[in-house]
Amino acid sequence: MNLSLVRNAFSNLLGAVIPALVALGTVPLVVKGLGDASYGVYSLVTAIVGYFAVIDINVTAGSVKYIAEFNAHRDQERIDETVFFGLSVYALLGLVGGLGLFFGAHFFVTRVFSVPHALEHEAVATLRLAALGFFVGQLQSYLQSVPQSLMRYDIASRIEMVFGTCVPLLTVAVLMLGYGLFEVILLRVITSAINCAVLWRCIRHLLPALRYRRPGATIRRELLGFSAYSFLSRFASLSYAYADKLIIGALVGVTGLAYFTVASTLANRILSLTYRLSGVFFPAASALAARGELERLKQLYLKASRYVVFINASVLVLVAVFSYQILYYWMNPQFARAGQVVLSVMALSQFIDSLTSLPSLVNDGMGHPRLSGTFALARAAFGLLVVYLGVAGWGIEGAAWGHLIASVLLTCAFLVAVHGRTVPAQLRDLLQRSYSPSVLGVGVVALAAQAGNRLLDGGPLDLVLLVLLTMALLFAYGALFVIEKDDKDLAWSRVKGLLSMRKTV
Question: Does some domain include residue 504?
Fold first, then answer.
């Protein structure tokens, strides 16, 4: 595989892994510091703010595509127009959404969701403060996309790593000092503003000739035209990502929402990490398609799919098989009992969703965001329906099963629709070369791990040994049957090179 692509992919992944581990590690402390009900309110506030992000028309997608193209042609004038048009759009979106959150806070807390009366005042004040955070967050999301469009994921990831690590640690510190929910949100608003300042300084370093230039009609038309269809995907994804929590908050209450949020967030955080490996495929696919190198794109796509599916399937085994123990030791027995099924089912749902990541990126890079946007919208609409029915009938576990049903049906439909059409690879090749070698072997390991989990019940030591054995089996299978020969040879040649250099020294 292209080493520049691999380096960018792992830089992008590293920017998410460390913050995710820190965030997950601090969740029990945050829940303890806030209490179950207040943590449910915290989850509700973040869900409402996240849901308001559906007004984002996804100009970042168009900016990444066109800044990458303009930078390849050294067209500074059009880069200037693109950057400042994007900033203007996101400032306007942040202002509109922030005002909506601020003036609608009382209505959301008192009329829509089941917030305990004693927490209503704090919830309203916190949501109004989060309105400012929404404005700053919109600017941050756009600024972060600019280094990525220049294939400098290393810079964007370092910044993300620093702030993503500091925020949860500072959150715990705020709670330990005796402060509450309002101060936690205030901390996040301040750090987001500092993040924007750091990103802007890095952008000026990467683009020293950048200066304000009024965007022309051509730039506006190209960006909005591409982003209009990408917006469908973002709108659907955000709606679907936060609507389940809003539904649970309305039908079940904030305590049930806390149990669901902890389990679903863990599944999402872990299984979504490999999307960071895939994300660099969007500008790469766009460049290869522009040069007509479709055969090379096909081979890279099939190989990347093979490795990403194996990694996700391996992670799924560890999360789903040991879901009860993870929640038991990470949180407490109550969370383990309430969230075990949610964690297992949501992890499986996330895995199935991940099968659409690379096809979507290639499809969009080939210039067909309309198709992926339409499917994302259909998935969100159908998913919300079955999640609502699941919550109404079976509570938080019903929500998880609703997610899984939607994932299976819509993922299968999308894979059939794009392969051989907008993605330059046949579905048969994908199944044979990418899915089968990974899924079948990992499935056997999963069955063995599940059997061992039922037989061994001797406490933490047995659990650690079983997890390590499962990981060893997955690693051995991947090394023997998943990694392709040319990549093994390349890795071995680099190892020998490093060893020879060490001997020389």
Answer: no
